[in-house]
Amino acid sequence: MNEWLYVALFMIVGAIIPIGAILAGAILSPKKPNPIKQSTYECGIEPVGDAWVQFKVQYYIFALVFLVFDVEAVFLFPWAVKLGQLGLYAVVEGIIFISILVVGLLYAWRKGMLEWS
Amino acid sequence: MTPEKIIFLIVAGATLVSALMVVTTRNIVHAAFWLIAALFGVAAIFAILNAGFIAVVQVVVYIGAIAILFIFAVMLTRKDLRDTSAQQNRNWQAGALIAALTFGGLAALFQSWEKLSVAAPAIPSSFDAVAELGSQLTSPSAYVLPFEVASVLLLAAMIGAVYIAFTRK
Amino acid sequence: MIPLSWYLFFSAALFTIGLFGVLTRRNVIAILLGIELMLNAVNVNLVAFWRYGDVAAMTGQVFAIIVFAVAAAEVSAGLALVISVYRRSNTVVAEDLDLLKF
Amino acid sequence: MDFLNDPLKVTAEWLEGIFGAWGMNAAFAHVLVVFLGVLLLLVLLMVVDIFLVWMERKVVSRFQDRIGPNRVGPYGLIQPFADIIKLVIKEDITPNGADRALYNLAPILSMMAVLMVWAVVPIAPVILGTDLNVGVLFLIAAGAIGTLSIIMAGWGSNNKFALIGGFRQVAVMVAFEVPMLTMLLIPTIFAGSMNMNAMIQAQDKIWYFVISPLGALIFLIAVIAELGRAPFDLAEGESELVAGFNTEYSGMKFGMFYAGELLHAMTFGGIWAILFFGGYRFFGLEQVSPFLAAAIFLAKALIGYWIIMWVKYTMVRIRIDQMLAFNWIFLTPLSFVLLMVTALMNALLRGTPSWVYGIGMFFSNVILAWLALEIARSVSRKEREKIEGAKPLAEAHH
């Protein structure tokens, strides 16, 4: 039996519970839609245009830096698991690996890309 | 038909349908969300293959980071929310033909390959894939060079992307 | 037990769908989505060969992880290019990016 | 093997026997029994969740010098049930132009992302979903699905506040996930495994909090930001973004977001206890009975939850630029340095007696924390002088 079957069961049941709750709400609650009620909330005034807003390019930079460190962590987890049985050389390899990526973080910081404004 | 095969067929079918939606749906944000569904299906395939670490990494890297990067990039490059113009270029029939030929060629190659019916070896109960990966990635006689080169690659990607995305007009 | 051929046909189909997307989409971001599908198809093959080959060797899984790193690098640089192009020429349609043609 | 020592296995075997007697396939019976067990665990968690609503309201009112719910039932204990009935019979409004599929999927995924974490949480030595050897990374995978639900809600609502709130929240979550991932590596190094049960087993001599106090602290800060709670709750800053990504949600869909947030906080209280405070371990008491172990784990999780609440109701909201600067310029580099120092010290102190190892680790953490705070203090002093130095000029202008 594959252990991931248990995880799949957790995900299925974890989806069934909120679906059931929302369905119960849908059955029990009144439904009287009208255009004013369904208009999007904009602090009481008439909604203006679409929900389109201009986004900062910083959002992309944050996601980018996160992606790089996410992949870095993927490499480091097997390293961390085995570290106890490996010699000092493995530690040094890991430190080199992290240091190279920290250079990238420093670069982004020096360029002012990690600031919000 | 064993239960394992049925599960595989359901997952593979759902994945391929999601992949088709990725390349055909008009709304680019929906295409990104269909891609997430397809990637999740591939993660399930990895889990069926007993590669638990790769399956989790697939979710962490692709769904947790790459998909978010895609959605942010869509947000940054839209003039209006719902673009309804044509999403396929003029030569889509030629593209479909090339794709069909590629699949046909690959399928023909598989048909003529005799190792196709090889049985999967049993995984020893004491085998820990993550620990084994750890020792291979740090061992000088195995993959320590790719390990370090990967970090240089990621550094280059990060610096390059930051530089490109921020160059003023 | 699922035969190896099922995984190979699945990944071939996924690769082909991705190829179709790359060839036919107009939006550059959608083309990158297709490339992601193709990279994933490659990963399915790598992991399937690991499972059906020598399990203790781990070569397939190591390559799969390297593919993750390559995919991450490809996406981050590719999307940065898209954003940069959009800020210059205000379009993400591949056919309209013809500055080099003239 | 009796019920009090291994309740799950005994019950499962008993049920499988019954189903087998009905002529059911053995494998199918097993899956069915596991399904029922999972359903039981998750329903119990939802019941706990209902009481978390009550607890949260009681605790916040004490912090704010009020009494809190006290009318419905003894100590207001029936109040959360009244809240639920109200949520269920509330009209469910879908805003105009909403992306219906994504709008409806978001609350389901939000709840699922929390519930699926419990697949790898060891509640007691023998009460756990599954012993995944990638347990710690599974947390991040579940968190990725939670992030996705926020993007879906923000995008699907067709509302400016929801869109901005959702994207700010996601920016904060991905930013603080970097120190969180790095801090997950530290217990992994100590235990030599990503398996949560193995981590608890490895904390038999000493809790990881003692040998990595700085790691535990950074992890807590990252978790609070990840949960989107004060002081990092700017996505829901009422005065500027209404309710953030769930502005347009009403009725039970809003209820799912709300319940998910509370359960998420309690879950991460439990994860914090597992990674740094020995999980269900408490001076050998966990050996007595699995039920006692589960009670110890629940108590530790609630203490962690209480600390998260304490922070929430004590601190003021931090501005988004300061918050992200705090993460990228202070927390992330500090966590990388801590990881490198821990790996190095772990290799250097290997083979020494455990008290030398513990003291060495503890003091390397303390020294690192002191250095980081000194650097931060000198930088902030310079910033302050820059701002205060400019002040007299502005006054002279008047």
Question: Which short descriptors sum up this protein?
Answer:
heterotetramer; B: mainly alpha; Four Helix Bundle (Hemerythrin (Met), subunit A); 6 helices; 72% helix; 0% strand; D: 398 residues; mainly alpha; two-stranded antiparallel sheet; 2 strands
Helix percentage of chain C: over 70%
Mean pLDDT of chain C: 86
* Alpha carbon gap, first and last residue of chain B: 61 Å
Instruction: Encode the helix/strand succession of chain B as letters.
Output: HHHHHH
Structural class of chain C: mainly alpha
Quaternary structure type: heterotetramer
Q: What top-tier CATH class of the largest domain in chain B fits best?
A: Mainly Alpha
Largest sheet of chain B: none
Unreliable parts of chain B: none
- Bulk shape of chain B: globular
Identify the biggest protein-protein contact and residues per side.
B-C, 87 and 72 residues
What is the CATH topology classification name of the largest domain in chain B? Four Helix Bundle (Hemerythrin (Met), subunit A)
Q: In total, how many beta strands of chain C?
A: 0
What order do the helices and strands of chain C follow?
Answer: HHH
Give an account of the 3D structure.
The complex is a heterotetramer of chains A (117), B (169), C (102) and D (398). Chain A is mostly helical. Chain A has helices at residues 4-28, 35-38, 58-82, 88-110. Chain A has four helices and no strands. Chain A is flat. The model of chain A has no long low-confidence stretch (mean pLDDT 81). Chain B is mostly helical. Chain B is globular, with a radius of gyration of 21 Å. Chain B folds into two domains: 1-80, Up-down Bundle (Four Helix Bundle (Hemerythrin (Met), subunit A)); 128-169, no CATH class. With 102 residues, chain C is an all-alpha fold. Helices cover 75% and strands 0% of the residues of chain C. Chain C is elongated, with a radius of gyration of 17 Å. Chain C starts with a helix and ends in a 13-residue tail after the last helix. The mean pLDDT of chain C is 86. Chains A and D meet through helix 1, helix 2, helix 3 and helix 4 of A and helix 2, helix 4, helix 5, helix 6 and helix 11 of D.
List the topology elements:
The complex is a heterotetramer of chains A (117), B (169), C (102) and D (398).
Chain A: H1 4-28, H2 35-38, H3 58-82, H4 88-110
Helix pairs in contact in A: 3-4
Chain B: H1 3-24, H2 28-48, H3 52-76, H4 92-111, H5 129-138, H6 144-166
Helix pairs in contact in B: 1-2, 2-3
Chain C: H1 4-24, H2 28-52, H3 59-89
Helix pairs in contact in C: 1-2, 2-3
